[in-house]
Amino acid sequence: MTKFVLTPLTPEEAEGRPSINTGVAMLGLGGNDYVCAHCGRVVIQGFNMDTTLPAMVYVCGVCGGHNGAPRKT
Ligand SMILES: [Zn+2]
Predict the structure, then answer these.
(1) Secondary structure of residue 38 in the 3-state scheme
(2) How many CA atoms lie within 13 A of 1 on its CB side?
(3) What is the domain partition of the chain in residue ranges?
(4) If you measure from the C-alpha of residue 40 to the centroid of ligand 1, how many angstroms do you get, rounded to a whole number?
(5) Separation of 25 CA from ligand 1 center, angstroms?
(6) 20 and 58 Cβ atoms separated by less than 8 Å
(7) Buried b / exposed e along 33-66 (16+ C-beta atoms within 10 A)
(8) What is the Cα–Cα distance from 5 to 14, expressed in whole angstroms?
(9) How do residues 17-50 score in pLDDT, each as one tens digit?
């Protein structure tokens, strides 16, 4: 399991893309943890983002910030 920091997006960048609100914490079926790029909270736990659309926008349920999938290095 790895902890990833999501990529911060502006509302303009997120516009027109599919989005999901994480709520206070979104639970997956196993995988990695993802940290909101804006408030630093773990908003998605046990999830594999490789299995979702790369364009998906994750709206933080804590601070309302828009996040994209972590950038691959
Ligand atoms: Zn946040």
Answers:
(1) coil
(2) 11
(3) 3-68
(4) 6
(5) 10
(6) yes
(7) bbbbbbeeeebbbebebeeeeeeebbbbbbeebb
(8) 17
(9) 999 999 989 999 999 999 999 999 999 999 999 8
Whole-number Å distance, alpha carbon 18 to ligand 1 midpoint, is: 18
CA nearest neighbour of 32 among 63, 61, 3: 3
Kindly list the distances between the CA atom of residue 45 and the CA atoms of 2, 10, 11, 26, 69, in Å, as whole numbers in the listed order: 10, 23, 23, 6, 14
Tokens of 40: 């630093």
**Cβ atoms within 10 Å, residue 29:** 8
Tokens of 68: 């994209």
pTM (whole model) above 0.85: yes
